Amino acid sequence: KQAEKAVHQKKEQSKTKCRKARRRHINLVAEFNRRQRKNIWLETHIWHAKRFHMVKKWGYCLGDSPTEKSYRACYRAMTKQCLLQDLSYYCCLELTGKENELLKQLARVCSIDTGLTFEEACCLSGRFEGSLNLYRADRYPEDMLGPVTFIWKPRDGSENRQLWIWMHPALKQEILRELKAIFQCSEPEEICIPQPVTTSVQEEKQLDVGRSLGKKRKKEDREGEKAVPVKKILGDGTRDPFQSYSWISHTTGIVISDRTMEILRYRLIGPLSHSVLTETLKAASLQTV
């Protein structure tokens, strides 16, 4: 029995890869992509996973509480230095179209009685970010959707403007449904999914021969399926990667695009935030042809 047990253990150990093989870049990326099938990771996930207790919320894997007693250090950074917070899990909706048409329809989902609106001069110029509460169309003060922040792209001389609206992922579906209703965006744009390139029979045979010569053992997950190819996973926790991400209105000409996880968002807190930005970001020199 002891001999049979030893042989059985050797067979099990032979199936596992050594640490060097597991830590190869191609194996790591494939494993990370497999683990993101249900919950999307942020760009700073690896850093947070080593230092925080992770929770799965709203389709993302987020850092909840630190594993070490770093509350005093965070408070010190907020009051005297600079603290960075990753808010990339917030959803972003981009509105593109004529400025008058945008302001006309957006006035139906907000009210001047609550404070700032999309028509505020300082925000409309694109210099400052604004925040307000959205309501269902023509339903103020009832049926509030939730708080959002917005920023306009500065004017470039044309009548078309771009507006980015940021919201919590729990509010995205309701706000997106209301925006599509007021702008009459019912027909989604076609999604360009690349089709596999067709090859001839001889080329396919040559490819099969080349693959068989340098073929490695197939990497399979626990379910026995093939591992996810090495590529960046598109989409986000609130949208399937193969669903529509842009809608256009043929009557108003407004285009609504879902930019979630395409635009990263970080928050700097503390008195040294501005100096950190000035030291990090360098202005590019404009070269006129």
TrEMBL record:
A cellular component annotation (GO) from this entry: nucleolar ribonuclease P complex
Pop1 N-terminal domain segment(s): 4-97
Record region (Disordered): 208-227
Pfam families assigned: POP1_N
InterPro entries to which the protein is assigned, alphabetical: Pop1, Pop1_N
An example Gene Ontology biological process: tRNA 5'-leader removal
Entry-linked PANTHER family: RIBONUCLEASES P/MRP PROTEIN SUBUNIT POP1 (PTHR22731), RIBONUCLEASES P_MRP PROTEIN SUBUNIT POP1 (PTHR22731:SF3)
Protein name as it appears in the record: POP1 protein
Species in which this protein is naturally found: Rhynochetos jubatus
